[in-house]
Amino acid sequence: MRVEQALRLLPNLEALMPLRGLLLSSARPDERVQWGSGGPYLTVGKRDVEPGELARTMAPVLAFVAQHIGALYGAYVEALERQERNDAPGAVTALVGAGRLEEHVGRLSQAQAWYEVALALAETLQDRRPEVETLLAIGHVCLALGNYSEGARHYQRALVLSEAEFNQAGAVDASVGLGTAAFERAEWPGARAWYSRALRLTEAGNDGRRLGLVEHRLGLLDRGQGDLAAAGDHLRRAREYFEKLNGGAALDMARVLDAQGELDAALGRPGPAAAAFREALAWVRRDEHDPGLDVAIRLHLAELLLETGRWLEAEEEMRRAEQLAITSNEPRGLVRIYTVLGTLRGRQGDETGFVFFEQAIALCRALEGPLVEDARVYHAYGLFRQVCGGPDEARAYLERARGIFRSLGMDADVERVEAALRNSHGVNTAAGGAG
Amino acid sequence: MSRLVTRPTQQSITGPPPRPAARTATDAVRVLAVGGESGPGPLQSLRQWAIDLGVELEWAADLPRATRLLAGGRWDLVLAVLGDRSDEDLGWWVDALRGAPGAPRLIALADRPSMGLALRAEKLGVLDVLALPLKREALASALARVRSATTEVALPLPPIDTEGQGHYALVGQSPAMLEVYKLMARVAHSTATVLILGESGTGKEVVARTIHQHGPATAGPFVAVNCAAIPENLLESELFGHEKGAFTGAVARKIGRFEQAGSGTLFLDEIADMSLALQAKILRAVQEREIERVGGGESIPVTVRLIAATNRDLQDAIAQGRFREDLYYRLAVVTIQLPRLVDRGDDLLLLLAHFARQFAERYAKRIDGVSDRALELLRNHQWVGNVRELRNVIERAAIVVSDGTLRSEHLPDELRAEEPGVPERTTSGLPTLAEAEARHIARVLTHTGGQIGAAADILGIHRNTLTRKMKEYGL
User: Fold this and answer.
1) Which of A137, A173, B19, B293 suits a disulfide with B241, CB 3.0-4.6 Å?
2) Nearest by CB: A286 against B62, B234, B450
């Protein structure tokens, strides 16, 4: 049975999300389809799933779910006990711990719910440190959900409290969070001000890891603003800080190398860019495996190959990322992979490439992830439709993307979509004139 | 019909004298050894053997350093110590070495490697899996295999008459293909519906396009729909079109493929992947020569010529109630069965030459030869994906080829793993019963795509027995 058929029989209930994940991760491509003419368009929906095998692999998933829920219940009971013993900070820690557990399994909205309960309790305390910790956690999850304004609000409060309490680490983290909230909305001067502040605070404290993290963010900012030389300097310094930690920050190192790869790609140096991505993958492999990061780096590598016209290698890299995302239950990664695969087909002038965007949209609906992901899919789909037939559809998808970006306050993205819409209008007018 | 076929202008591989490979068998083998954070650890003895074995050795303590060294130079061989997650490590290495300069082969080293690991390594094209502590003889034997690859002799590719249909050219002159050409010539000038059967990658769309180009509908468009690729819920609107607002996402009126094809040809590929409900609608379109857009009430006449294709056994699908018999007879007015690549003899060489030239042009390379070893590997491969798989392999090779000759090092590891003469892991040279059983189980599991139930049925054993054996062999 095909996954797309199996999913039609599965109601969209939260309690069944792990089963949905299991269904996707146990899906395998039929060899005949792989080599058939449908092979180049294969998506997770067209993979096969065997009910018998699902039944056999259900037990460990159920055990994991039970363990996770058990841990949440445990955290809640601990919060109650602490509260009963007048240890409210301990109760906050337990509730924040529950949120982190949810965040760890990718349940971001649920994590936010736990943090909000913790925050309500933390706000009643004289000691402000639990409140700062909770605010930082909420800010982080808000950014991950694409709710940048809300995230900035929480980070702002965390900063004020941290400074009042001389909590330097809290102030650094809050400043970085504020910088990132501004960065994501392309508010470059604001982002620079916050990151620079974080850097000044960190330099005073001599915290190698935080210094590396701030340098990394400054590198991303400079790259975003087009100052590639400055970006290179920041990323080099970030690497140096992380290297001094003797492998203690392998995933941070992977992220910096990933950024270095993107920088080299922007500088038109595909060789060093590919080498940086490959080394980043090696760092990911060295530490506790983070499949989400692995998938993201592979996607960047694939995009590099795509931009340099190495379509076959780009597709192979994306297929490897797809396999990893499926087997490690990273369906959000699949959304990005299918968007890039659709873009690749668009470059090849292959109209059937629309199937990738449709699959990405179906996944967005099923996963109910951050809205910004939906907007990115619609934006790319609109651009695809501009090239591969369907100007009306192109306009409809672009308008949908613009609406979402606008609701999130992402002005730079709104501008990009509007430029595409103007282009779409121009094409239509020209076509009309020719007719 | 001769213009349909690209033919060689020279029958056999003759011409300029063979060119020697760039590297010679006496050159030192460049080896990158990876593993051990504080020193070569399990590879210590390797340093002592290096000169004696003719090895130029470099050592990297960890994966990031190894990746830097790999990117910075050409290597013949990577010796990697696998960690606790040996299966994952193996996959990681195979992936990391893809496209690395010099196309280095991989030897995986593991403490007590399981049979499952050895079989997986074999499938992935890993040169060998050796047990730790490393034995000199085992390494020497693997090195001998690396060296033997340096003695490849270049053979010129036969020139091909390029009078064809470019990207969709039919290439081949085997008896099986000549029968196909004759049948195509007979049906091309009629408007009869054609059903093309054949395994994946045998060229069904190429045949359909050629029939269209030589038929009465040639003035009209050729519209191809891949029924296997399109999500089931969208296929109907893709074929018949829809009116604006017919369903969520129907943002504008859409003209379907039947209408787009107009008076041309509509090619329905992988028709067996269609639901029964949609099959009924196709039958109506074929019988009544009219369609209705989704969400529209108006009947629209269609004059399109229909060509359908599938890689499935339609008779079997009919027997299982998954394909409508009446539709089958409507489609199979003329049936063309395409041969598998392995049944096409020397067509492989012609196709190789055709694709090599096509991709050499695309990637601005010069490819005018193939090495004897590469050709042997290509000839011995089973080509499950037929011509499409060959095309893929040649495209990948064309990307990495540097001196005008396709060599075995340019072929995927999976193909190189099929090289004859890979020694068995027992002293007698013959596999043990357990090894043979594990190998066969692995092969069947690959065939069923890992589905245990189906594999147990083929093997004629109970599912629980199979699960136990898989655990036992580490599969």
Assistant:
1) B293
2) B62
- Do B88 and B222 lie in one domain? The reply is no
Task: Kindly report the CATH number assigned to the domain that includes residue B449.
Answer: 1.10.10
CB pairs under 8 A between A and B: 139
Alpha-carbon distance A262 to nearest alpha carbon in chain B (angstroms): 17
CA-based max dimension of chain A: 80
B330 and B354 share one domain: no
**Cα–Cα distance between A203 and B119 in angstroms, integer?**
53
Shortest distance, CA A62 to any CA of chain B (angstroms): 20
Tokens of B470: 């898989």
Q: Clarify whether residues B182 and B323 are in a common domain.
A: yes
Considering only CB atoms, which chain A residues are within 8 Å of B385? Answer: 34-35, 39
CA-based nearest distance B226→chain A, Å: 6
Domain annotation covers residue B15: no
Q: What is the pLDDT of residue A12?
A: 82
The complex's ipTM works out to 0.74
Q: CATH no. for residue B364? A: 1.10.8.60
Q: Is residue B105 part of a domain?
A: yes
Cα–Cα distances in angstroms (integers) from residue B368 to residues A264, A418, B390, in the given order: 35, 49, 17
Domain of residue B227 covers 175-338
Q: What's the total number of domains in chain B?
A: 4
What pLDDT, in 10s, does the model give residues B423-461? 444 445 566 777 778 778 877 777 676 777 778 888 888
pLDDT 10s digits, A152-182 = 999 999 999 999 988 889 999 999 999 999 9
Which domain CATH number covers B54?
3.40.50.2300
3-state DSSP assignment of residue B423: coil
Whether the per-residue pLDDT at A433 is higher than 70: the answer is: no
Rg for chain B, CA atoms, rounded: 27
Mutate to test the interface with B, among A5, A37, A323, A352 (most CBs of B within 10 A): A37
Q: Are residues B187 and B330 in the same domain?
A: yes
Q: Beta B254-255 vs B241-242: how paired, if at all?
A: antiparallel
Whether A31 sits inside 8 A of B399 (CB atoms) is no
pLDDT score at A393: 86
Q: Which two tokens stand for residue B411?
A: 């072929």
B264 and B299, same structural domain?
A: yes
Q: Tell me the shortest Cα–Cα distance from A165 to chain B, in angstroms.
A: 41
**pLDDT tens digits for B248-264?**
777 778 889 999 998 89
pLDDT above 90 for A261:
yes
Q: Which of A41, A50, A393 is closest, CB to CB, to B226? A: A41
Q: Which of B200, B231, B385 sits opposite A4 (nearest CB)?
A: B231
Three-state DSSP class for residue B414:
helix
Cβ contact, residue pair A355, B230, below 8 Å: yes
**Of B306, B307, B291, B277, residue with least CA distance to B196:** B307
Q: Are residues B193 and B92 in the same domain?
A: no
Residues of B within 8 A of A352 (CB-CB) are 226, 229-230
Best B84, B95, B227, B247 member to test A by mutation, with max A CBs in 10 Å, is B95
Ranges of residues in chain B with a pLDDT under 50 are 1-22, 37, 162-163, 421-427
DSSP label at residue B367: -
Whether residue B327 is found in the same domain as residue B347: no
**B146 and B250 housed in the same domain:** no
Of B99, B201, B450, which has the smallest distance from its Cβ to A313's Cβ? B99
Question: What is the Cα–Cα distance from B123 to B460, expressed in whole angstroms?
Answer: 24
Tell me the two tokens of residue B372: 């004897």
B164 occurs within a structural domain: no
* pLDDT for A68: 96
Q: A275 and B68 in contact by Cβ < 8 A?
A: yes
Domain end among B338, B361, B386: B338
Q: Which residues pair with B128 in a beta bridge?
A: B107
Q: Which residue of A lies nearest to B35 if distances are taken between CA atoms?
A: A286
The region that residue B402 occupies, defined by phi over 0 for left and psi between -120 and 50 for alpha, beta otherwise, is alpha
Nearest to B269 among A34, A37, A355 (CB): A37
Mutate one of A32, A251, A345 to test the B interface: name it (highest B CB count within 10 A): A32
Question: B279, B306, B338 — which closes off a domain?
Answer: B338
Task: Answer whether residue B251 is part of any domain.
Answer: yes
